[in-house]
Amino acid sequence: MTAFLSIQEVVKDFGASAGGAAFRAVDHVSLEIKQGEIFALLGSSGCGKSTLLRMLAGFETPTSGRIHLKGQDLVKLPPHERPLNMMFQSYALFPHLSVWGNIAFGLKRESLPKAQIADRVEAMLKLVQLGQFAQRKPHQLSGGQQQRVALARSLARQPSLLLLDEPLGALDKKLREETQIELVHILKSVGVTCVMVTHDQEEAMTMASRIAVMSEGRILQVGEPREVYENPATRFVADFIGNVNVMDGVDGVAVAVRPEKIRLARQLPQAQALVPLKQVQGRVRDIAYFGSYTVYHLQLPSGQTLKVSQSNTERHPDDTLAQDDLAWAWWLPCAQVVLTC
């Protein structure tokens, strides 16, 4: 069965000149994306994720490799002929046009009948719940509302593929968290296939059906959010997705365990004689209170610091650990992951 979007051995080099070495931004990337997926390219700045998105959009041409959408070779098509739309981080709304005019802009360029344009715009306004703001200009809207206008404009042309470049990057943290679920609901209700670029691990975990973690132009791991978080393929992935403790072993092997998988107390539980546990004693050096949970930094005899995240399920716990207290940390063997690279 042919993938909806197929990226095969794509390479992108920049800066090649006579006698000069090129910089490889994307290094033999291959991906297959299913129809209706929300797929996230996740990585830090400079990892190649935005360059890959720009090659999908047609703003950059691959040095080598193939990109097919529904069996059609995208590399041979100019940007304006590709059956896709791209929503930029800055939203790129026209300041002199109303919300209605911004959404209608692309439809007018396609010379669609006025009645069809009006129907499509009204449908998009209803989808993003901005009907009452149709005649407002972008500067009269909040950041979240501007984001929804940009999304409506991108969806109005009914693209086969929607590209999102850091879609929530311009919003503050609280609004970004509120908008994540709303954006996913809109995308799923339309059924559009979506490829998004983000450096925000939480955003990718919340919104995407699958994630590709990138570093130095390469794909390190592809999988569903839970799979990537619980079973990281490499040390980089383990460290990049969420918080993690990595303890070095022998022969280049390391063990990773998430802070929330670890329990912490003054004494080991009596049940540990019946259930095999990984355990270590240390001294509490730092305590960070985050409301719903507390993070303890436990200094081990080896000198390594172990991070432990404890849920605050009680308002006034009887046995609260303090700085410089001796404490035991323990976890189930199945909670740790062995890393070989």
Molecular structure report:
The protein has 341 residues and is α+β, with helices and mostly antiparallel strands. 25% of the residues lie in helices and 32% in strands. The strands form 4 sheets. The protein has a 6-stranded mixed sheet with strand order 6-7-8-3-9-10, sandwiched between helices. The protein has a 5-stranded antiparallel sheet with strand order 13-17-14-15-16, with no helix packed on it. The protein is globular and about 75 Å long. The two termini are 33 Å apart. The mean pLDDT is 90.
Short description:
The protein has helices spanning 49-57, 99-109, 114-127, 143-156, 173-190, 201-207, 225-230, 235-240, and strands spanning 5-14, 23-33, 38-42, 64-69, 72-73, 84-87, 161-165, 193-198, 210-215, 218-223, 245-248, 254-257, 263-265, 278-289, 293-299, 305-311, 326-331, 336-339.
Q: Compute the gyration radius: what is it?
A: 24 Å
- Shape call: globular
Physical arrangement of strands within the biggest beta sheet? 6-7-8-3-9-10
Separation, N- and C-terminal Cα atoms: 33 Å
The largest β sheet comes out as:
6 strands, mixed
Report the mean per-residue pLDDT as an integer. Answer: 90
- Output the number of helix runs: 8
Number of strands: 18
How helix-rich are the residues, as a percent range?
Answer: 10-25%
Low-pLDDT windows of residues: none
Overall structural class, as computed from helix and strand content, comes to alpha+beta
Order of helices and strands: EEEHEEEHHHEHEHEEHHEEEEEEEE
The share of residues in extended strands comes to 25-35%
